[in-house]
Every structure is written in C-alpha cells, then in structure tokens.
Amino acid sequence: MSSVSLFNVTKAFGEANIIKGVDLKVEDGELVVFVGPSGCGKSTLLRMISGLEEITAGEIHLGDKRVDPLPASDRDIAMVFQSYALYPHMTVAENIGFPLKMAGWSKADIATKIREIGEVLQLLPLFDRTPKQLSGGQRQRVAIGRALARDPKIILLDEPLSNLDAALRVDMRMELARLHRQLSATMIYVTHDQVEAMTMADRIVVLRDGIVEQVGSPLDLYLAPVNQFVAGFIGSPKMNFWPAQTDDAGRVIMPTGQAVLIDDGCAPNQSVTVGARPEHLVLCDSAADAALTGTVLSVEHLGSDTFVQLHCGIGAPDQIDINVRLAGIVRVSIGDQLSLTNADANAWHLFGQDGKRMNKIAI
Amino acid sequence: MQPSLTKKIFIYVGAALLALVIAVPVLWLFIMSISSSTHLTTLPLQWWPDAPTLENYKSLLVYAENSPSASFLYGIRNSIIIAFAATAVSIAAAIPGAYSFSRLPGPRRKNLLFAVIAIFMLPPVAIVLPLYTVMSALGLLNTHFALIIVYCSILLPFTTWLLKSNFDTIPGDLDEAPIIDGANRLQAIWYVILPIARPALGAAIMMAVLLAWDEFFYGLLFTNDIRAKTITVAIADLAAGRVADYGLISAAGILAAVPPVVLAFFMQKTLVSGLASGSVKG
Ligand SMILES: Nc1ncnc2c1ncn2[C@@H]1O[C@H](COP(=O)(O)OP(=O)(O)O)[C@@H](O)[C@H]1O
Ligand SMILES: [Mg+2]
User: Fold this and answer.
1) Which residues does chain A have within 8 Å of residue B196's beta carbon, measured at their own beta carbons?
2) How far apart are CA A100 and CA A109, in angstroms?
3) Burial of A337 (0-12, 13-18, 19+ CB in 10 A)
4) In this structure, which topology does domain B70-280 adopt according to CATH?
5) Which chain B residues are closer than 8 Å to A137 by Cβ?
6) pLDDT in tens, B91-108
C-alpha cells in the first residue's frame, strides 16, 4: 500500500541533467537511506518523490497509484526538512497541529492528537514555546512531530541530523530508528554520512551524479560493493586501493611479489585495482607470506584499536599510503617495518579498469 | 568599549539638533494655530500669544455650510475614504504580486518588475494629461473612484517592491513546508508567509496611507468641490483666498496630521520585527 516505486525517473534543470534515470522500489514499512557525496542529487530525488519538484520524465507510484502528476499536498507524504522549517510565529503545539488544521480537523481532535505526539516525542513541556525558544535537538523533535501529525504512511527526511552536534546526532539516530519500528511507516532518509546510512538503513541506495550505483543492505554494500566508488564510499576508514597485475595463471601479483589466487582466478595478464579494508589487514609473522610490506608513518592508539598508516612504496609515482586498523593494542612505533596480508582471500576486492567489481560476490 | 566623552557629546548634540529641526516647525505651526489673526500680524512678533485661543479649531470643526469648516471636514472625509481604499486595494494586489515576484521563477517576471518600477519613477506631470482626458471621458472627474485608481498606480509598485524584498528574506523551506502539510499556495501565504512578514506589511500599509494622504498634485487636478476634494487640496484652498488666515491654515495642518499619527500609534506593535528568527537551523 505505501511502497514507493520510481520508474526511470529523470530531472533536468535547464540543460543540466541532475537525475539520470532512477529505477527503485522502496517496500512498505522499509527504511531506505539515500547516501552519496554532496551535490549528487539526493535532495532533488527526495523532493521529486514529495512533489515539491516536478519530474522531467518517468513515473512515480505510491502503492499502485501513480502520483507524479499530483501536487505535493495531495500525495499524503510527510517530510522533515534539513532546516526544520518550523513556523516561527506559531507555538510548538500549533506547529504540530498545523497539518491537521489544514486537513480540516476539529479543535478538540487536534488537541487530542498533538497531545499523543507530544507524549511520544517528550514535547509536552514545550508546547507553549515558540521555535526561537528551543534548542537544536528540540526543534528537530518538533519538526518530526509535525511530520507525524497526520499518521503519514510515508515519511521523507532530508539530512535531518546534520545541524546537530555529534552526541545529539547519535541519540536522535536511535530515536528515529525506534520511531520507525513503532510507526511501521515507510521512511526514506537522505544523508551524506555513510555511518548514519549503515546504522539506520534496511537498505541503502548509493547515488553518484544522479545515478544509482548500488542498492542493498548495509552488509551487502560492505561485503560486495559493485564498483570502486561504492567500495570507497562505504566503510570508515576508507578501503585502501592500489594498482596491480594478474599473471599468466590469473593470480593477482601483490606489491611484495606474492601471487594470490582470488576466487578461481581472473583473466590473465591484465591491470586491476586491488582493494583491502583497513580492518581486514593483519600482521603476518614471516615476510614470505606478506602481501604488503611498509614503514610505519603514524600510529594512533585508541585502546580498542590501533590505527597505523603505512608507507609501502606502491602505486608510483604518487605513492599510496595504506591505512590499517589492527584490533586491540599493538605496540608499533614510527619507522617500524610491518608485513601485512589479508586474513581471508575473500576479503580482497578486485576492480577492473572500468572500476567494476571483478571477483565473485561472497556474502 | 566605552565611547569617549567627546564622542558622547557629539552624539547628544547631534540628536538634539535633529530633534530641534523636526520639532520646531511643528511647534511653530501649533503656536500659530492658537493665535488670533491680529496677534500674528502685530509687530514686533511675540513667541507666545498673550491670549491663546481655540477659535481656529472651532471654526474648522464646527460644521457650517459654505464655510472653511465645510471644506475642511469634507476634505478629511474624502481623504480617509480615498487613502484607505487605495491602500486596501494596493495591498490586496501587492501581496500576491510580491509573492510571485519573490518565489516563482522566470526571466519575464523579472522584467515585469523593472517595468513596474520604471513606471513608478515617471513624474506625475508626464502622465497627468492623458489621465485627465481618460477620466474626463469616463465621467470620473471629481469622484473618489478616480483618485483611488490613480493613487493605486502610485501605491501598488511601491508596496509590491517593499513586500517583495521582505518575502525574499523568508527561507524557501517555509513555503514548501505548509505545502507538504497539505496547504495550497494561498493557504501557505495566508497562514505562514503573511504572519512572518507582518512587520513589513504594517510598514507598507502605513507608508501607503501616508503617501496617499499627502498627495496633492492629482488631488488638485481631478477634483473641484467638496464632494471629492482631499484634505491637502482643502488646506491649499484656505490659503488661496484674498486674505490668507494663517491661524486657520495652521490649525488645519495640525488637525490633518491627526489621522496618520493615530494610525502610526496603533500600528506600532506590528512594526516590531525579528519574528522570523528561530524557524530554521539549530
Ligand atoms: N533549483 C535548481 N536549479 C538548478 N540546479 C539545481 C537546483 N536544485 C539543485 N540543483 C543542482 O542539482 C544538483 C544536486 O543537488 P542536490 O539534490 O541538492 O544534491 P545533494 O542533496 O545530493 O547534496 C546540484 O548540482 C545542484 O546545484
Ligand atoms: Mg541535500
């Protein structure tokens, strides 16, 4: 009923194609996160679903009803703006009740409903204040309260947490996740922060330059990114990449000269890009087993982890430094020589010249 | 930082001078209005009349046919009707106009705005002849309606411009949020944009009323008796007789200032700005 389907949706502002043909289905009750670098068209796509932006071509369906010709006010979609967009001249109670007033509810019904929402979001003590008298986190909750007023089946959120400080952001993230479970509404959530995406999403949609690069669960994206862009975008710290060659037998020649067979081998004698996540690299005892060796450039001890930056002399002329995340406390210091390999052959990622993933997806 | 003493002195002297420049003519007008005509013409001139009198006010406010009071009282009535009607019509048209200029896209819209401002800049004397011919052909000379229409042409560009610049400062999210909340455009303007723009709206109304109230040129040309003559024209008539009674003219001047001052007094609260803060960001 409240699924959202996009069929080859495009958007052009004048000459500039911003959204270049998006096909997507968001299932009923799902929390889908649009993630991508700033300017890739996340907000535009969200606004097209809401009806605030007209679409240039394609179709948008809510449930089995086509809605792209309908104005925003007839789509029955709620939206939380990045700026919150609270009405400055209204109290918190009036802000939350505004959508109900527009829907023609009676005063008494509005009062009951906003009280209910106020309880869920712990806003009751603030009901008589104006937005000016609220903190950032409180404003955020009021904006969410207003979006919940009409019991929407679909809620859109455009970077709702980006104006909050880090601690509050974590709290609100959990609160939003809780609300999503409680309301069983379909939510589409836009963020440029991949951590937010990974922690909240049922499924993530990675966008770049108006194109969907990959759709999948957080772990799908983490374990089997379809291309180098997604591989680099998802995960923190970022995946390490370096250029390599395959030998006659289709094995990948690592910087140390070691030949590694990934999957059942890939096409012989061609250039590839190797990817390794910092947390998958481990120290190896003998230099003979190492895929990478290098000199320590910097060490950060966090107690739970040790972050090491390694100079390996690969990828000349502009040499690539490798980031490693070692579990627990590892006593290394700057200038030490380290030998590294990947714990599991499945954890190597291989990308072709076109940036597309080459090795088989192993989930 | 504490301003230095010299700086303070300069500021206070400056303020006092400004107050003097504004207040002295009004005070002078008031003194003249409570003086008898003999007193005003005796030499040497005195600062304060020996026998202050309200005679001038009485002869303006107590109605008698074919007297100064008739043209004065009718002038006030005509001015109130014309100024308020012209303001109401202009504001009613300026709100959607300004919203459209501020919010809706399109280069032609921008050009139209400049055309409107260009017309506003035209001196009245440039268009008064064709206007007169049109009004005369339509039989509208010496009616309230003619002046209301003409004044709207003055007030509308000005109020539109003023409201447009204010609407420009209201974040765009604030007219998209009500649309998402189920309002249509007009409801978004009525429930959200206008309340936020209230100080500007108040200023626009006040300036419009004042502009219309003070207008003289069109009022003089398009009216010819008490049925439509505005207060500015009526006061000028008082001065046009063979002997100008300066006491009477001064009293009329003081009284003519009362309606705008009363309006300003009641609009004061609306003009307090700063309503828009706190709507967006953290
Ligand atoms: N109204 C508009 N007119 C022209 N270009 C726009 C408009 N809105 C957005 N864009 C462009 O579309 C691109 C995507 O914008 P946006 O969707 O806001 O990105 P994101 O939310 O992913 O950061 C940007 O390059 C932006 O300049
Ligand atoms: Mg955005």
Assistant:
1) 87-89
2) 9
3) exposed
4) MetI-like fold (1.10.3720)
5) 282
6) 999 999 999 999 888 778
Fold topology of A4-229: Rossmann fold (3.40.50)
Provide ipTM, 2 decimals: 0.83
Distance A114 CA to ligand 1 centre (A): 34
Give pLDDT tens digits for A291-349: 888 999 999 999 999 999 999 888 766 788 899 999 999 999 999 999 998 878 778 99
> What ranges do the domains of chain B cover?
70-280
Question: Any idea where the domains of chain A sit in the sequence?
Answer: 4-229, 237-362
A66: tokens are 């086509």
Assigned token pair, B104? 């809706």
Is A77 within 8 Å of A151 (Cβ atoms)?
no
Output phi, psi for A125, to 5 deg. Answer: -65, -15
CA angle B12, B14, B15 (to 5 degrees): 65
Alpha-carbon distance of B146 to B141, in angstroms, equals 6
What is the reported pTM? 0.82
**Best residue in A50, A86, A150 for a mutation probing chain B (most B CBs within 10 Å):** A86
Residue B185 CA to residue B150 CA, distance in Å, equals 30
Nearest to B200 by CA among B121, B279, B95, B87: B95
Say if CB A214 and CB A225 are below 8 A apart.
Answer: yes
Measured CA distances, A215 to A203, A229, B138, B216, B277 (Å): 7, 13, 71, 71, 40
- A237: preceding bond cis by omega (within 30 degrees): yes
Q: Are strands A77-80 and A154-158 parallel, antiparallel or unpaired?
A: parallel
Residue spans of alpha helices (H) in chain B: 5-33, 37-41, 55-61, 68-103, 107-121, 124-137, 144-168, 173-180, 185-188, 194-196, 198-214, 217-222, 231-240, 246-256, 258-267
Q: What are phi and psi of A151, to 5 degrees?
A: 50, 55
Q: Determine contact: B173 vs chain A, CB below 8 A.
A: yes
CA–chain centroid gap for B83, Å, is: 8
Work out whether the CA dihedral B241, B247, B248, B250 comes out positive or negative. Answer: positive
CATH class for the domain made up of A237-362: mainly beta
Question: What is the residue whose two structure tokens read 């037998």?
Answer: A249
Helices B231-240 & B68-103, crossing angle to 10 degrees?
A: 140
- Confidence band (pLDDT; 50, 70, 90) for B276? very low
Contacts of B206 (CB under 8 A, 6+ apart): B263, B264, B267, B271
The answer to whether the beta carbons of residues A350 and A261 sit under 8 Å apart is: no
What are A's interface residues with B at a Cβ cutoff of 8 A?
50-52, 71-73, 77-79, 81, 83-89, 98-99, 102-103, 130-137, 139-140, 146, 149-150, 163-164
CB-CB neighbours of A124 under 10 Å? 13
* Cβ–Cβ < 8 Å for A70, A51: yes
